Amino acid sequence: MAIDFDQIFAKAPHSGGSAFQWHQDQAYWPRMDADASAATCWLAVSDTTLENGCLRYLPGSHKEEELRPHFTMGSCRESATTLFTPIDEDREHPAHVPVSWGDLIVHHERCLHASAPNRSDGWRYVYVLSLHKAAWVAAERAAGITYSYNDPISWSSWNRWPMAGGAEEGGTQGGGQERR
């Protein structure tokens, strides 16, 4: 495995818009010939609780052979920055996973997960490290995918990545197909 990218998630106190909707990390990645196997390492830099938006998982979802359909968030394609997949929480029974500062969670690329907004008085911090096979990381870099927040990423650059088209407004991703 090789380091693909890392990032810090900081949820401000009482930030209603800080929720991450249900998704599978692999839905964000371009389709390439390289093996997309990955491990996302999620390190709690502060306690994560029900109140400040701990992770929620759909148990067993990592065993699903295919990605679920993912849709863009936002009123138009240009404002969409995240993807989501609808789940039936009453039928599928997601689990909340509160953890203490210093705890590490590792999840599979197809594991369905989400987090609620931070409704507490304090900040919630998490450090994320994404590991992929070295061939995948090399293929991403060759395609111009760097994950740097300094790079100008737009839908036009997204559409040039080696996948079946880009995200469609208000709906599916993948050239009019659901993003899988």
Automatic annotation (TrEMBL):
It holds the Pfam family PhyH. InterPro entries: Phytyl_CoA_dOase-like (IPR008775). SUPFAM superfamilies: Clavaminate synthase-like. It comes from the Eukaryota. One of its GO terms (molecular function) is dioxygenase activity. Its cofactor is Fe cation. Keywords: Dioxygenase, Oxidoreductase. This is Phytanoyl-CoA dioxygenase. It comes from Monoraphidium neglectum.
